[in-house]
Amino acid sequence: MGEFELIVRYFKRPTRHAVLGIGDDCALLQPTPGCQMAISSDMLVEGRHFFADVDPFALGHKALAVNLSDLAACGARPLAFTLALALPKADAAWLEPFSRGLLSLADAHDCELVGGDTTKGPLNICITVFGEVPVVNGRSQALLRSGAKVGDDIYVSGTLGDARLALEGLRGQLALPQGLLARARQRLETPTPRIALGMALRGIATAAIDVSDGLLGDLGHVLEASNVGACIDTTIAIGLMACDADDLEAATTPAARLACILAGGDDYELAFTASPDVRDAVQNAAAASSTRVTRIGQIQTETGLRLVDAQGAPITNLYRSFDHFA
Ligand code: ADP
Ligand code: MG
To answer: Which atom of ligand 1 is found nearest the CA of 25?
Structure first.
């Protein structure tokens, strides 16, 4: 199978919204009048972001999911994406499930594959997504990292820490029972981008980010961009893992769970801030998008991030987020 046959067989489909899709030198998109484009790229490298033997269907899903998660964090609606793919060989047994995983998530979000590039090389997947956010009365509705205000509540969507738990189980750093590992692994390999929640939070959240490198580090970016500080209640945070409590408690210590939750990464949930005046609106946005949200702390004047226990007493913060070059 040659390069062009590969593209046509696995990636080219009839266009739906794009003016021009795969097959010419450029794709053409027609932006909706009154909207801004939101654009983001993410690269997945074998050995760095995924194991060589990972299920190709899950890998296709995840490659797009991590990109859609950035659109979610901006409150953007997905439109289209491009796929730059380096492959060691044109292997139908790999390409078929990979493209199915990729394109089924794309269909679920009505996000079209409009172009890309295909070369031979060590497996490497780079996706660029295009989305849009409305401009209302001259103001962009995009959720940014820089909008958090002193006194705002801090929330996270869904569950945190399970992806990291799976990683430790797969690496043999933690001995996990089969069932627990299987459930945690789903969160690692097929994360859910919170697109509907991000869109529902437009005009409600003051700031947002997606949690890819670990909650404390990612929230730290919001604090820095907003020039504020925060405190997080660890007694609430400890309840954020999805995995069944009994299994978890037998297999892990509270300190290990908290490390997964606060600094684990690969969760692709949203962390966001909103005024206490709009708590009802936040709950409505959560209900409308069928996404759980949990209030875990508050934005404060004093810069930096503090962890507290149930009594409000400070806990030493020993957690570090992921950094490729640290
Ligand atoms: P060019 O050489 O002009 O960059 P290519 O020959 O590389 O174009 O690609 C041919 C067409 O196939 C282009 O429309 C390109 O966007 C598309 N394409 C290439 N690789 C992929 C891919 N992995 N997924 C989707 N579209 C792709
Ligand atoms: Mg090319």
So the answer is: 3
d(CA 187, CA 192): 8
What pLDDT, in 10s, does the model give residues 48-93? 899 889 999 999 999 999 999 999 999 999 999 999 999 999 999 9
Instruction: List, in order, residues 6 or more apart from 173 with CB less than 8 Å away.
Output: none
Q: How many CB atoms lie within 10 A of CB 254?
A: 11
**Any ligand 1 atom below 6 A from CB of 165:** no
Q: Which CATH class is domain 153-315?
A: alpha beta
- Closest among 243, 236, 239, 62 to 169, alpha carbons compared: 243
Ligand 1 centre distance from Cα of residue 118 (Å): 7
* Strand, coil or helix: 41: strand
Q: b or e along 33-61 (b: 16 or more beta carbons within 10 Å of the residue's beta carbon)? A: eebbebebebebebeebbeeebbbbbbbb
Nearest CA owner, ligand 1 atom 11: 23
Residue 118: CB within 6 Å of ligand 1?
yes
Each residue's pLDDT tens digit, 232-268: 999 999 999 987 677 888 889 988 999 999 999 999 9
**Domain parsing of the chain, residue ranges:** 3-140, 153-315
3-140 folds as 60s Ribosomal Protein L30; Chain: A; (3.30.1330)
User: Is the distance from CB of 283 to CB of 231 less than 8 angstroms?
Assistant: no
DSSP for 146-203? GG--TT-EEEEES--SHHHHHHHHHTTSS---HHHHHHHHHHHHS----HHHHHHTTT
According to DSSP, residue 123 is labeled -
Q: Is the shortest distance between the CB of 127 and ligand 1 below 6 Å?
A: no
Q: How far does residue 118's CA lie from ligand 2's centre (Å)?
A: 7
User: pTM here?
Assistant: 0.95
